[in-house]
Amino acid sequence: MSIIIAGERSGVGKTTVTLTLLASLRRRDRLVQSFKVGPDYIDPMFHQHVTGRPCRNLDPVLTSETYVQQCFARHSQLTEYSLVEGVMGLFDGISSLVISPLSFAEDKGLMTNDKGQITDFASTAHIARLLDLPVVLVIDCSRLSGSVAAIAHGYQSIDPRIKIAGVVLNRVGSDRHLSLLKDALKPLQLPILGVLRRQDNITIPDRHLGLVPTAELTELNALIDRLADLGDTCFDWQNLLPLLKSQPLPPPPNPPHSPSSIRIAVARDRAFNFYYQDNLDLLQQLGAELVFWSPLEAAAIPKDVQGMYFGGGFPEVFAQQLAENTSVRDGVKTAILEGMPAIAECGGLMYLCEQIIDFEGKSWAMTGVLPTSAVMGARLTLGYRRAVALQDNLLVKAGTTVHGHEFHRSHLTLTPTQPLFETSRYDCDENMGCEGWGFPANVHASYVHLHWGRSVEIPQQFLKECRTYA
Predict the structure, then answer these.
(1) Which residues are the active-site residues?
(2) Do domains 3-244 and 262-469 have the same CATH topology?
(3) pLDDT per residue as tens digits for the range 349-367
(4) In the chain, where are the structural domains located?
(5) How many C-beta neighbours within 10 Å does residue 428 have?
(6) Is pLDDT of 333 > 60?
């Protein structure tokens, strides 16, 4: 069956509830596969730390509805239990953020605008419908009592195709508070599947792009233990476990593996750790051997590699350490200028610049492959992008449209004269400008994060260029 953990809005504790469930299941030695709705990288890191299995992103914008269904079917069959963490509020989709007025189509059970267009595309509700999964709704009860019934009833009734299996009451203050909440919910006959009291000793640190990644948290295991302790007592396991059970459906076949012939150096450490596991899997299935290494700690780039992949992350946080590792900076620059193909997304793009200027205005030398600098600032660039290739480049041909996601607080001091992409918002025609470096020609450096699930030709093209270089 599996369930989706959804929130009535952002910030209600979806991730805490999800991690509490996962931690308690793992303490019981249950194998569990987790999924995350949307493009997020950091929440899946926490899932993987708890379960020991890579979390999979379910995002119909970056991939497709069909791919979301196939991905869930394939990976949920590998474990006894599976669980999906939602994004934002249950019905918050990309179109509903910008289209108004909204109306409710009673005959279809859909949120639509006055043109009849669905407005919750890529929302948690959309994924629940695609996968036919029940929803467990997390409600922040810290500032309400009787009103909880109106909230729960609204979510229960607005879309008849969404099955609310029950609620988790989060941030409950006292026994009296809980009694008021239960009395209010009783007429709805909606099961209370969990009650989490206000917790002062369970806090996950965050910073300018969200939660601090797992690799930087020295007390993470102690935190997970506290979550497991909480999970053992706060959930109605008798009713939850049957919902979490994976469906015995035959998964779609995995793509065939090709024999390894190309070695790709994948930067993965505290500075670079934003990767979709499906992208890494595709590279391996297409015949690549992945060599994970650290630009922070290594003495040199890996030997005998024919390509490099720098994902996103937080190079600005570790800019001094990256700058001080001159042998690696020089090695990366030399390899790229000699023709080695390299993908650099967001944080990777920043590493290929001449320097990073951090939030305090300090400048730190980077590899210098690109004649520009990355400057940190307060402005957050965030959103899905439709990107049309303006020229043939390392990954795609001119005129190709790809769909990606931007999430950063830096900007470049110089834009390329021949950018990779012309970008626009995914959900409307608003032009977001041109971006991306494709010079040298063996480089693909862009702020736009790509998931290759719907575009296997992208890693195929990359590996073709790596074989040519070899």
Answers:
(1) 346
(2) yes
(3) 999 999 999 999 999 999 9
(4) 3-244, 262-469
(5) 12
(6) yes
